[in-house]
Every structure is written in structure tokens, then in C-alpha cells.
């Protein structure tokens, strides 16, 4: 079986004809075999590690929605719990509110020095996990609090959603980048939203082609996004940006469910992302020299923190 592919079309051909007279293979099964080939581990060991990471993502969102997260800088201030408990609502939809709360919670745990899964990066860690877990909890009418042990096996549907999202990340990483220092935040939160949109479409039963159309819809609406962390910390605008981009993923998946397709195919959107990355000024690629980091308040926060004064409203 071929484990190298340069684009989505090539991958689709591999899945249809895995070789040696084998029948078509699903994308999640293919990814497991690919990881086994690359790592030299058996599939059982890979699934065990996958379950551990899924459990860590669950534990981080529970922590962020159980205990308000405050960072030492003062820039992270318990937004997840405030949003989750707020009685003032413009949109009173459970999936919408949970996904935003979950994404905020995970990224606030990161900002406060807790343990998360960088998926694909620490600064965007709430988007994929927040979207998948929100969908899962709403579908299963789950109360928020149940904690899953880190060594518990997870249902195949949940595992597969995480695997499908990683497939979108692999394709982006191969042809563009997942690093803010190279591609701005389109490479971090933008990629994460595309990965989440792909997973949500998969969970709703769409074809792989339509899953990647959802990813394309999402990604092309983050092209050119600056990475401009205030004071060089992964907090402002990163934490709240996780909430905005999990919403991007939900919208992309919802449009795909309505039969709306991206006119520009996924591979071409990734090409455009790479092209834009090469045109972006260095000062908006994660070095905290431009954008919000260079705004008057951004400069003041940096100066205050350098003198040991935490931010306060």
C-alpha cells in the first residue's frame, strides 16, 4: 500500500485502489496503517496513544469549565466559564454555545500553564477538540461533568473524527504550514478550523469529498490572518480567536450539510494559503512586532509585564 501522497486527489485514488487486489479502504483505517508504517508500531499501540490524547483533550476542557483559568500575565481571565454560564444570549443553540465554551476552555488551560493537546498547535488547541467534543456531547445529551479516564478506549466514531481532522492537517502541513512563524495565524487557527470542519462533516455522515469541501470553505475564509500575539504570549488574541474559529468550522460544516460546495477545491485553497504566507510581512508572523502587538495597548501590556506588573482591566 502506498503511504505517500502529495494532494487530496492522490489520496482519494489510494483509498479507492489500495493495491494488491485489496478492496477500498476508509480514510481512518488508512491513517492507522500509515502511522504504523511510519512509526514502526502496531495499530493497537497507536490507538492506545490516540485514546490518551483524546482523554487529555477532554480533561482540559473539563478543567477550563470547572475552574476559571487565570494566567500569570492577567490576560486570560476565565472567559470560558463566563460564556458557558451567561444568561444573556443572542444565539441560544446548544452546539454553538458548547463548542465556543469548550474551545475557550481548552485554550485558557494552555494559557494558564495546564496540559493540553497541541492540535495542531498550542495556540489553536481548542478548536478541533472543542468542536468534536461539543458535537459528541450534544448528540449523546451528555452532561458536561463526566470525566473519562486517560486509559479508557473511545468509540470508533470519536476516534475516526480525530483521525479525519488530522488528515486535513497532514495535507496542509505538506503543502503549506501549520506554524504561525511561517504562515501567520491562517496556519494555526485557520488550519485548525479547517480540520474541525472536516471532522464535523464526517460526524454528520458526509462523504470524504464533502468533508474536504467543508475544510476548503473554512480555510479560505481565514486566508491572510495575522499572527500578532501581544507581548509574545499565546493569549491575546489567541484564546478568544479559538472561539471565533470554532464557529467558522461549524458554519462551514453546516453549509456543506446544505449541499453548498466550495468552488475552489481544498488543494487549491492550501496552495493559496502557501502563496499568501510567502507574501506576509515578517512582523505579523508570530514575532509580536506588528498588528495587535504593536497597537498602543499591546505595547503598554508588554512594558507592564516586563516590569512585573500583570494586566488588569
Number of domains: 1
Terminal CA distance: 57 Å
Q: Which percent range fits the helix content?
A: 55-70%
Q: How many individual helices?
A: 13
Give the low-pLDDT segments.
none
Which quaternary structure do these chains form? single chain
- Which sequence of SSEs, written as H and E, runs from N to C? HHHHHHHHHHHHH
The radius of gyration is 19 Å
Strand elements, count: 0
CATH second-level architecture: Orthogonal Bundle
| Shape descriptor | globular
Helix and strand content put the structural class at mainly alpha
The portion of residues forming beta strands comes to under 5%
Largest sheet: none
Compute the average pLDDT.
95
Text of the CATH class: Mainly Alpha
**What's the CATH topology label?**
2-methylcitrate dehydratase PrpD
Write the layout of secondary structure elements.
Blueprint: H1 8-16, H2 27-39, H3 43-66, H4 79-85, H5 94-111, H6 125-139, H7 156-175, H8 180-183, H9 189-203, H10 208-219, H11 238-257, H12 266-279, H13 296-306
Helix pairs in contact: 2-7, 3-5, 3-6, 4-5, 5-6, 5-11, 6-7, 6-9, 6-11, 7-9, 9-10, 9-11, 10-11, 10-12
General description of the model:
- By secondary structure, the protein is mainly alpha-helical.
- The protein has one domain: Orthogonal Bundle (2-methylcitrate dehydratase PrpD), CATH 1.10.4100.
- The chain is built from 13 helices and no strands.
- Helix 6 (125-139) packs across helix 11 (238-257) and helix 7 packs antiparallel against helix 9.
- It is globular and about 65 Å long.
- It starts with 7 loop residues before the first helix and ends in a 7-residue tail after the last helix.
Amino acid at each position: 500500500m502506498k503511504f505517500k501522497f502529495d494532494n487530496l486527489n492522490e489520496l482519494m485514488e489510494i483509498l479507492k485502489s489500495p493495491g494488491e487486489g485489496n478492496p477500498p479502504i476508509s480514510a481512518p483505517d488508512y491513517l492507522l496503517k500509515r502511522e504504523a508504517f511510519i512509526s514502526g508500531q502496531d495499530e493497537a499501540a497507536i490507538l492506545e496513544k490516540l485514546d490518551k490524547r483524546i482523554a487529555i483533550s477532554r480533561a482540559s476542557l473539563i478543567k477550563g469549565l470547572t475552574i476559571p483559568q487565570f494566567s500569570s500575565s492577567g490576560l486570560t481571565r476565565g472567559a470560558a466559564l463566563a460564556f458557558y454560564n451567561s444568561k444573556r444570549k443572542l444565539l441560544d443553540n446548544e452546539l454553538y454555545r458548547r463548542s465556543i465554551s469548550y474551545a475557550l476552555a481548552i485554550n485558557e488551560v494552555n494559557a494558564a500553564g495546564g496540559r493540553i493537546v497541541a492540535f495542531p498547535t498550542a495556540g489553536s488547541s481548542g478548536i478541533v477538540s472543542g468542536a468534536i467534543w461539543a458535537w459528541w456531547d450534544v448528540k449523546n445529551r451528555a452532561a458536561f461533568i463526566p470525566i473519562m479516564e486517560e486509559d479508557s478506549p473511545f468509540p470508533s466514531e470519536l476516534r475516526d473524527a480525530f483521525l479525519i481532522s488530522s488528515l486535513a492537517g497532514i495535507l496542509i502541513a505538506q503543502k503549506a504550514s501549520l506554524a504561525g512563524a511561517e504562515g501567520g495565524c491562517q496556519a494555526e487557527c485557520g488550519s485548525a478550523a479547517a480540520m474541525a470542519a472536516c471532522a464535523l462533516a464526517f460526524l454528520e455522515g458526509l462523504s470524504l469529498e464533502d468533508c474536504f469541501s467543508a475544510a476548503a470553505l473554512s480555510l479560505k475564509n481565514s486566508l491572510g490572518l495575522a499572527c500578532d500575539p501581544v507581548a509574545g504570549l499565546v493569549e491575546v488574541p489567541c484564546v478568544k480567536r479559538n472561539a471565533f474559529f470554532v464557529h467558522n468550522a461549524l458554519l462551514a460544516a453546516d453549509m456543506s450539510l446544505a449541499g453548498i460546495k466550495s468552488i475552489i477545491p481544498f488543494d487549491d485553497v492550501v496552495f493559496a494559503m502557501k502563496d499568501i504566507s510567502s507574501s506576509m510581512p515578517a512582523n505579523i508572523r508570530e514575532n509580536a512586532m506588528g498588528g495587535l502587538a504593536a497597537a498602543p495597548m499591546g505595547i503598554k501590556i508588554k512594558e507592564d509585564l516586563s516590569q512585573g506588573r500583570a494586566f488588569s482591566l
